[in-house]
Amino acid sequence: MCIYIAHVLWTGGFALDVSSCFCLSLLLLLKKRKQEVIDLLFLGVVLFSPMAVGGEMTQAAIRLVCLVFYFAKSKENVFHYGMFAVLAIVIACFIVPFAPFGDLGLDANTSWRISYWRDELDQLLATYGMGVGYGTSYASYGFIGSATSGPFAATAQYSTLEKMYVVGCHNSFISMAFRLGVAGVSLLLTYILSLASRKRSHREDFASSACFAVISSLIIICFNVGFESPAYFFLFAFSVSYLNSTATLREAAICSVEADRGRRSDATNSAGLGGAEALSRHGVIPKAAERVRTRFRCHLAAKVM
């Protein structure tokens, strides 16, 4: 709550941007206490605060994910279903641009993004799925046209031609496929899906916050310039590292517990053995028997002589 107040004082308004909404939701799930009234008040701030201009749909999705993780009883199931839902959304982003949307009445922002995705996917297909590599523009000349208005319009900082190298298509998965080809984006998706198979921390609040962070950051990079924007890329890198750390700590704790159980089991088995069996296990009886056999051989040899 103090962080939200500081945000209001710093920005001079109650509206949250995407990064602020992400951080507040993460803190809510990470520091969830037994004071339900305070937590519910914090949740109300996250859910009902005004949204800053830009990324409204992304922020609405983040708030919904936070709400689900807050009340869900099985956080692990929610995480698995959420990861596969994100995968379905990513696949849809590669299919939707080729569908006819002329008569659906989409708003200008949505239509522009879908058209831009189509432009990059067309360029990807022209390379037979290999990707165009780096050092080239994002958009094609045919897509931007004269660009007297919109995202590619010239500004005091960039000309229209320069913006072709600056303005991304607002979908990091398509951008990666555009640059590194189908193989590059497939490797990224394989790594992301591997996160779903790792064990989460035994601390329920710690696990829910890490799982929320990963799913929300995937939503962010799916509809924004996630890898091109330092702020959004930091959220993604932090979230993946955060979840990996919880899984690694959990796995280390499990190995430590199993090793401790093994040592206790060996000690218990040794204590429960009979006297002769215990002496035999520790090599006492075999050594004594060997000494007896040696003395018996010496005694027989002395008699023969």
From TrEMBL:
- Native species of this protein? Gordonibacter urolithinfaciens
- The protein depicted here goes by the name O-antigen ligase domain-containing protein
Q: Which UniProt keywords apply?
A: Membrane, Transmembrane, Transmembrane helix
Q: What are the transmembrane regions?
A: 6-29, 41-72, 78-102, 123-144, 173-194, 206-227, 233-254
- Keyword Transmembrane included in the entry's annotation: yes
Task: Note whether S-adenosyl-L-methionine occurs among the keywords.
Answer: no
